[in-house]
Input
Amino acid sequence: MLTDQQRQAYVNKFMYIYLQDKNSRYRSYDHVHCVYLKNRHDNSPETLDYVALHLFAFLGSWGMLCRGAFLLQKDYRFLIPVVKKLNQPKYDGLCDIDLTDAKLDKSKYIATVTELIGELKKYFMSKTYYKIEKDKETDVAKNTAFILGDVHDTVIGKILLATLGCIPAYDRYVVAGMKAEGLCGTLGNRSLSDLVDYSRTHASIVKQIMASVNADVQRESGCRTLIYPVAKILDMLFWEYGYDIL
Output
């Protein structure tokens, strides 16, 4: 297990790059999170289009549009129904949720996140993507449809982190860091429960880190309402720790 000093050091490592490069991908979270929360209750076509574009750019900056990725087969407007699902009032309580709060209803949090994940997966699973191949006999290009088998935790995690800020990203490095700290790294009930327990156990250092980080990001981003929630702090911590040990 890490010490509080080590936890602070890993977040400082993340913030060092953030502060050194004003166009770093580390800042892509600032853009999408500010835009999303500001426009969360606006479901006009123009605003949904605008938010979906920001979300698509964020996902691209963190590898979700690389070769072989499902979203590589789609344009940004494919995410408009996703934004609409996220905007539902029943998910208001997930916005920048304080996972350190001793009064947080853990069971409700887990149930709500699980319901939302199910909605997103149902949407993704209902779609197909296409791979252009050549017929071996005629050498003519053709589209071959593939049914999406499952939606990786990373895609769901990054979407929920970027928008509602309610869970970490669950990418390779974050999962490695989580496991090293004794948390379940597979997105589901057990892992969500572990996140709440970990946040409460280490509430003091998490809040200390949040205070210093949010002072920096508000100054640097120019967005005085931008707050890195607990899930974002844990994402930074686990990502840097996982990167270090892999």
The beta strands are 128-134, 141-147. The two ends are 16 Å apart (CA to CA). The mean pLDDT is 91. The chain has ten helices and two strands.
